[in-house]
Amino acid sequence: GSLGTAANNLNTSLGTLDAAISGAGTLVLAETDALTVTATTADGAITITTGGTLTATALTAGGTADITLTAGADLLVGAVLADADTITATATGRIERATSDTQFTAAVLALTAGTGIGTLDPIVVAIPTLSATSTSGDIRIRNLLTTDVTVTNLTTGTGALDYSQAGGTVTVTH
C-alpha cells in the first residue's frame, strides 16, 4: 500500500524516516521542517516536501515511477535512483552531495536551486537528459555516462558553470 497520496500527503514532523513499500504503492510525504530520509518503493513514485533541509540518504523508486524532492532549505543528496524515469529536485537553498555515491540516476533529471548546485563538490549523475538552473551560485555537475547526453538547460543568475562528462556527445538545446 501507499504512505500518502497526491491528494492526501502523509504530514510529518520527524527528524529521520526509513520507509520501504514492498508492493505497488507511493510515498508522498510533507515534512514540517528538516528531514533525513531513506526510502524504497517496489513499484511507486516518491514525493517528499520539507519545510527545512532535506537529506535524501538513499531513495529508490521501483517500477515506472518518478521521484520529486522539494526542500524548503538545502537538499543534500546521497543516492537517488529512478532508473528509466524522471527525478525532479528543487531547493530554495543549495543542492549538494551528502555522500561520495552517484547522486542521481534516471532517464531525465531536472535540478532547480536558489543558491547553487554542487558548489562544494560537483554533483555526480548518470543521466541522458539533464537540466540545471540556479538563481545564484555555481553549478558543478559531473556526468558518468559515456553515451550521448542532452542538456536542455544549464543556467545560473550569478556564478560559474562547470559540466563534465565521461564520454559520448553532449547536445545542448538551451
Output the keywords.
about 170 residues, mainly beta, 16-stranded parallel sheet
Concise overview:
This protein is mainly beta.
Question: Stretches where pLDDT falls below 50 for ≥5 residues?
Answer: none
Class derived from helix and strand content: mainly beta
Q: What spatial form do the alpha-carbon principal axes imply?
A: globular
Along the chain, the helix and strand elements come as EEEEEEEEEEEEEEEE
Got a strand count?
16
Instruction: Characterize the largest beta sheet: strand count, sense, and whether it forms a barrel.
Output: 16 strands, parallel
Verbal overview:
0% of the residues lie in helices and 60% in strands. It has strands at 10-12, 16-24, 27-31, 35-43, 46-50, 54-61, 67-71, 75-91, 95-97, 104-113, 123-126, 129-134, 139-143, 149-156, 161-165, 170-172. With 174 residues, the chain is mainly β. The chain is built from no helices and 16 strands. The mean pLDDT is 95. It has a 16-stranded parallel beta sheet that branches.
Write the layout of secondary structure elements.
Elements lengths: L9 E3 L3 E9 L2 E5 L3 E9 L2 E5 L3 E8 L5 E5 L3 E17 L3 E3 L6 E10 L9 E4 L2 E6 L4 E5 L5 E8 L4 E5 L4 E3 L2
Parallel strand pairs: 1-3, 2-4, 3-5, 4-6, 5-7, 6-8, 7-8, 8-9, 8-10, 10-11, 10-12, 11-13, 12-14, 13-15, 14-16
